[in-house]
Specification:
Number of strands: 4
Number of domains: 2
CATH topology of the largest domain: Glutathione S-transferase Yfyf (Class Pi), Chain A, domain 2
CATH architecture of the largest domain: Up-down Bundle
Oligomer: single chain
Distance between the termini: 25 Å
Length: about 200
Amino acid sequence: MKLLYSPNSPYARKCVVIAEERGLGGSMQVVTVNPMEEGALRKANPLSKVPALETDDGTVLYDSVVIAEYLDAMGKSGSPVYPASGKSRWIALRRLALADGMLDGLLLRRYAATKTLGMDAGDWVKRWTAATTAALDEMEREVAGGMPQWDIGAIGFACGLGYLELRFPDEGWRKGRPKLAAWFEEVSKRPSMVKSKPPG
């Protein structure tokens, strides 16, 4: 398998974490690409977005939600990160949606801050800053209520928080969220999280 990714992408990081957790890291080639350039990524994914995964039979999968579930299904070791059914599955998927929604806002804020969109996006920045705050508060409640396992929802939380620290290090998100801060500190020590930590 070959994963086309950008080292700073939190979406791509989730896929690397899952591959490591499920014993696929050694059989997955990771190739750094630039989404802003034409080339291998555009050929693999017409949207030119990372990540994209070329499977052993030549099938190309995108986006991270699809790749993550595929890697989990192909796992050789470790516990599945997607609960099979029941309440635990829906809670994990809800947590993943919360983390991905926060990431969407963080990326828009990043684009606005770097003028990537070529426009003044002040109103959007306010909207997505508020969404980030609300998402973090909800994550605090979720963690305080108990995060029973390292599943796709937990991975989403961890990668989302990692990206927040990378791009907005002065936000001080830990203030008033002691449970979330302690949880993130602990899961950041997992080998899959250490190995996938973005270079910055």
